[in-house]
Amino acid sequence: MVKLDNAEAIRRLAYEIWEREGRPSGREHEHWAEANREFAKLNPPRPVLVKAQPRWNRVDAERHEAEILRRALWTPEPFSAELFGREPSRFGRARRAAPPFPAVAESAPVAKDVRS
């Protein structure tokens, strides 16, 4: 549906009404409302013709949805080895997963605060 912008035409009509009444101040809302009424009389809305919509076919819709789901399930996703380690093998042989973070030595010296 095409939406027409009638604001400029209504604005000009309100300005003509304002001049016709002697350019009074403080009545712009009344002039604007009168311009809207006159514009509606001059340009009545036309009825919109509704085209017949094609009937919904359930079989085609289900087939289309199944195809979308099939593509979503079988599309490979990016894999982040940094976050999750190595991906396990799909053929039965399990690979050793790398630790996600470097191991911290338990005997590492701890820095002490020496401010005093």
How do the helices and strands follow one another from N- to C-terminus? HHHH
Largest sheet: none
How far from one another are the termini?
78 Å
User: Can you count the beta strands?
Assistant: 0
The overall pLDDT, averaged over residues, is 76
Fraction of helical residues: 40-55%
Number of continuous helical runs: 4
Gyration radius, rounded: 37 Å
Category by helix and strand content: mainly alpha
Coarse shape: flat
> Could you name the ranges where pLDDT drops below 50 across 5 or more consecutive residues?
none
Strand content: under 5%
Model description:
The protein is mainly α and 116 residues long. The chain has a domain at 7-42. The chain is built from four helices and no strands. α1 packs across α2. InterPro entries: DUF2934.
What's the arrangement of secondary structure elements?
Elements: H1 7-20, H2 28-42, H3 58-74, H4 81-84
Helix pairs in contact: 1-2
Give a concise summary.
The chain has helices at 7-20, 28-42, 58-74, 81-84.
What keywords describe this structure?
0% strand, mainly alpha, 116 residues
